[in-house]
Amino acid sequence: MRKTLLAVLLAVAFPAMTVAQMSGAHTGAIYAVVARAVGDPARQADKVNDERRKISSIMEFAHVQPGQKVLELIPGSGYFTRVFSAIVGPTGHVYVLWPNEYAKEDGDDLSAMKKFVTEPHYANVSVLEQPSNQLSSPEPVDLVFTSQNYHDYPDKFMGSVDPAVLNKQVFDALKPGGLFVVIDHVAPTGSGMQDTDTLHRIDPAIVKQQVEAAGFVFDGESGALRNSADTHTLKVFDKSIRGHTDQFIYRFRKPAK
How far apart are the two ends of the chain, measured CA to CA in Å? Predict the structure, then answer.
């Protein structure tokens, strides 16, 4: 269900509400949808990571809703995919995109994902395989989401994709008013993209600059995955920090007109 439609339904149900009350009711409705999705018995094995990965906070921040179309870039093991599937439901759809170049490095996850989408429980999930510099969606989507992979696109193994090309293609894949949510590991302030292939980190400031240059409007950030104990100088796979890196979560909006 689109946000506007949900607002209309709430207005019909609660005609005497103030604007502030309507906002609270909407937030409560989405919270309930996310809670049910996170509690889906089919993702039992994932639940051990939910507190660490702040799944509920991220889904709420991304404004994911029933009936939406989601494009998830480089889904890995499908941790987020399973929740997206449960939230958007049978009237929505989740497209998981595997760039060909990335799949060469992570063929096991791609194979597992292809098997995963044959399960009836995940009938609303489809796998896309494309060249890394030719991102596209079968239909306009409400949300494009990437976690810990924005920094990969400009690297050599991905074909050194120009961020301007990536962000323009994301922009074109979205419906007017659609959202682009980026989660990634924080690099030292002022470092730009110099650590993307070494530490697997990126400076949040350069991400914001690049995405806005494609026509997006910065729409907010979440501190759910921030960690002040991370010095930003270690590779994200270092045992002392892996799974607990300082991460930024940015939300960008494609203008409605």
Answer: 21
